[in-house]
Amino acid sequence: MSSISFQNLVKTYRDVTAVDGLTANIEAGRITGFLGPNGAGKSTALRCLLGLASATSGEALIEGKPYSHLDQPLKKVGAVLDSSGFNGALTAGQNLRVICAAAGISTDAIPRLLKLVELDHATRKRTRGYSLGMKQRLSLAAALLGDPDILVLDEPANGLDPIGIAWLRDFLRNLASEGKTVLVSSHQLAEMQHTIDDVIIINHGKLIAAGPIGEVTQGQTLEEAFMRLIGVAK
Q1: Taking the domain 1-73+181-234, which CATH number applies?
Q2: How many angstroms separate the CA atoms of 82 and 85, rounded?
C-alpha cells in the first residue's frame, strides 16, 4: 500500500477547478517532490490530503484512509503548511507544549526536537521575535512531535538562507534514511534535484509527470525537464 495516494482527486471552487483528476502514489521511505507553477493546485491537493478542504470528488488518502479517519493523526502524519500559526507571545517550547496538549501526546521529545532543528539556543525567546526561517524550523519540530512515519511539507525552504537550505536537504535525507516518507512541495528546483527520489509534476490541476527523478528528467536537469513538461520554452 502506498503511504499517500491521490485517486482521481477533483477540487472545484465555484467555476474554478483547482485540482483536476489527480491520481498519484507516494511510496514509503522516499522523498517525493510535488512540483508545479504557481496556481497549479499543489497546495489545494495537500489541503485535501490533510482534511483542511473537502474533495469535490475522488480521494486523497494516507495509508488507505482519509486524514479524518486516522487515530491520533499527529502520530501518523506531520505537516508544515504555514509557519505563521504560532502564538507570538509564547516561546518555542511553550508553543510546542500547547500542540502536545491539544493532541494528547507526550512533551518529552520537545528538547530533542528543538536541538534537532537547531533552535535550542532560542527556546526561551518569544516567537514574535523569530525570523521566517526560524519559524520554518519550529514548524518542522512541531511536525515531528508525534514521531510520524509521514511528513507533508509545503515550501519548507521559505525564509531559509543558503546555509539553511543545505541544512534542510540533509535534514530531509536523514528522515528518509530512518524510513519516513516525505512529500515536499517546493519551487526550489535546483535544490530539489539534489534532495528527492521521486517527482510529481502538475499544471492547471492535472498530472503532467510522475516517477523516479531519473525517469522523469531523462538526462536533463530538473529545471530543464520541468520547463519542457509544462510547455515553457527555455
Answers
A1: 3.40.50.300
A2: 7
Maximum distance among all Cα pairs of the chain, rounded to whole angstroms = 52
Torsion of CA 158, 59, 2, 116, to 10 degrees: 30
What pLDDT shows up at residue 124?
Answer: 87
Q: In angstroms, rounded to a whole number, what is the distance separating the alpha carbons of residues 115 and 136?
A: 14
Q: What share of the chain is helix, strand, coil (3-state, %, to 5)?
A: 35, 25, 35
Q: E strands of 65-205, at which residues?
A: 77-80, 150-154, 181-185, 198-203
Q: Provide the 3-class DSSP secondary structure of residue 140.
A: helix
Residue-wise pLDDT tens digits, 214-223: 999 999 999 9
Q: What are phi and psi of 151, to 5 degrees?
A: -125, 135
CA–CA separation, 74 vs 211, rounded Å? Answer: 28
Helix (H, G, I), strand (E, B) or coil at 114: helix
Q: Report mean pLDDT in 10-residue bins for the chain, 234 residues.
A: 90 94 94 94 95 96 94 91 85 95 93 94 91 92 95 90 90 92 92 93 96 95 94 66
Does this model's pTM top 0.90? My answer is yes
- Extended strands (E) in the chain: 4-13, 16-26, 31-35, 57-62, 77-80, 150-154, 181-185, 198-203, 206-212
